[in-house]
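Teaching note: in complex prediction, the entire set of molecules is handled at once rather than each chain in isolation. The prompt given to students was simply: 'Predict the structure of this complex.' The entities are:
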Amino acid sequence: MNETTNPGEVYRTAVARGRTVLLVVAVVTLCMVGVAYAPLPDSGWRIALILGAAAVNAFIVAGHLMHLLQERHVVYFLLAFTVLFFVALMGLCIWAHGDVPKPGAVPAAKG
Amino acid sequence: MEIAYTVRPRPDTGVYNAKLGMWLFLASEVMLFGGLFSAYVFVRVGAPPDTWPHGWLSVPLGTLNTLLLASSAVTTFLAWAACRARRFDQFKLHMGLTLLLGTVFLGIKGYEYHDKWTHYEVRLKDGRIADGHLVKSRTTDEAVVLKGRWVEDRRELLDGRRAHGAHEEIRIAREQIERMQNYAPRHNTFLAIYFTLTGLHGLHVLGGLVVFAYLWGPGSRLWHLDPEHFTNRVEVAGLFWHFVDLIWIFLFPLLYLT
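The expected output is the structure of the full assembly:
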């Protein structure tokens, strides 16, 4: 967050930012609900639009309220490492999902 | 002995220790919720066609809860900003509002849970299915009374978005019942993962409220001794609360809208 020496100014800036964030999140949430009820032909597109709107809300909250847009490098490094670790674990799951023995590849049980 | 770097940033990391500790904790939380979100995606993608429920949750209540939690995130942010501006009265006001909004959120969630817990699907020995809410006051040892409807096929229950007839009072003799099950986690995979995800999230909301109540009440004595240290505590607790809001931002569309 920008360092301002005047405490009154700090507070007024925060109030303005808070109002904007709340307004944008509310509008995006209502759009998301609207999309859920809209007569769209393909449900895949509908889900993508809804999750895209959720990502916008998440970006606003993380960027402005958690100050991630102006955070120290150590925090970015930590989060990047978390994302990397998560993607690797997801990759393992997806890889294991298709790792099913083919018929005939499993040796018959003895006895 | 004083704990180092609780107020001033560490020279090597650039942040004070509690903040770095909270970010490390949030990283572990990402893995926890990430695993559960992945489980949801895998279970849903792997579900046979036309077996996944839709419209089982109240969208108006979910939307209201989203707006409540977003408002509480903003009031938390303003409570921290008030501390930075040395306006303790405004901190008290905004933190009090956060507590109120968080409590209302949990109240609505509790109402939704109660609604599911008292909702029953009753399969009769002749093959018919009754679906509705238990009327506890009129249910006896001989008969179960539901406020609901009859369905011919169980698949009719899967899409809650479809309009169906008015609910009537249904009285079923107990000896006619083959199976009676409420909409609890054991009902099906959707409800199991719904209760797991929202239950864990609800516990996080409760935990956050306990910390905020401490900071608003007895913990606020620190303000008079070391306002900067107190401001940092509010910031760290706020980071946790914003994370809880972030989780809900994805839970709401996944469970209620898609």
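Point out the following to students. The helical segments of chain B are 17-46, 59-84, 88-117, 189-216, 221-225, 227-257. DSSP finds six helices and five strands in chain B.
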